[in-house]
Amino acid sequence: MMVVWMMVVERESNTVYLFDAQASPWAGDGDAKEGGLFPIDVAWKEERVALELDGPTHFLTGGGKRDGPTKAKSLLLKELGWTVERLAWFNWKRLETMSKEEQKSFWTAKLGRSGIGLGGGGGGVE
Q1: Locate the RAP domain: which residues (predicted)?
Q2: CA–CA separation, 58 vs 104, rounded Å?
Q3: Where does 6-63 have alpha helices with state H?
Q4: Strand partners, 36
């Protein structure tokens, strides 16, 4: 199983914060356990940024295109005000061959466009 780690991330204002794993986008919903309803793989709740890690089952056979439920989840999250970043399984396989510096550059570029920056803890794939 792939584990994405970004121990500490920071904004331009240098405010340091952590991400949540398997978080629910339903803010304040007392009936939904954390991550139990419509879970986001990696979430920065305050910034409303979701990182979805898409394994092979998120794709149509033979085409490399995401399936309907995966596209629908992205559309719903966007309607709820979230920015959605996705990482396909074939890209994380490529990440496994990169050096830690290359991994950090990849995550900085991918998450930076959503306002998330990598702090001193770095980022990568373990």
Answers
A1: 49-109
A2: 25
A3: none
A4: none
Q: Where are the domains of the chain?
A: 4-125
- Strand 117-118's sheet: what is its strand order? 16-17, 9-10, 117-118
Distances (CA, A) of 103 to 5, 118, 121: 11, 11, 13
Q: What is the pTM of this model?
A: 0.71
- Is 4-125 CATH 3.40.960? yes
Tens of pLDDT, residues 58-117: 999 877 899 999 999 999 999 989 999 999 888 888 888 888 888 888 888 888 888 887
Which residues in 31-53 are b (16+ Cβ under 10 Å) and which e? Answer: eeeeeeeebbbbbbbebbbbbbb
Question: Distance between CA 126 and CA 124 in Å, rounded?
Answer: 7
The helix or strand, by DSSP H or E, that contains position 107, with its residue range, turns out to be: helix 100-112
The C-alpha torsion from 115 through 47 and 80 to 89, rounded to 10°, is: 60
**CB-based contacts of 24, cutoff 8 Å, min separation 6:** 32, 33, 34, 35, 36, 37, 38, 39, 40
